[in-house]
Amino acid sequence: MVSRSRLIRTARTIGVVWWVTVSRTNFGRINQQIYDSSIFFTGPVNRSIFMDSVVLAEGDNIVHMSLMAFAKRTGWSLDQVKEAAAVHMSPDPDSRTTAEDGRRWKWVDEGNPNLGFVVVNREAYKHSTSETDRERKRRWAEKNRAEELARDAGGS
After folding, report:
1. Would 16 be classed as within a structural domain?
2. Could you read off the pLDDT of 108-136 as tens digits, one per residue?
């Protein structure tokens, strides 16, 4: 099994979008923009725990598990996950995302943290595209347009 740090180093080195599949419905899209964001400066453990939360969040952007269950599922210690939760649930004035004052996580229910937490800006990560993706889409569209024009010209 490849270690978590090796996967992160590899993704960072090759500078491509890193897709991590957990199940058929959950996936996280982490691209190189994360290395230019304020989350990079929270440290490698907090950054990796955040990446795990992006992957484990359901379609409603909620990680439906307690911090202890999250720690067990991801292999981090409970202390590391609690420290990350404190960081990710605090306002971040340097965040590019202004929702929730830059917080990355918030409790589903303040009174019962065992219900899980919301990954505030997961949609932004899920739908973000890298420059490579945009270029690939542009080339695909141009190719299809040219083929369509050739078919139309040949059929008339």
Report:
1. yes
2. 998 888 899 999 877 666 555 556 666 77
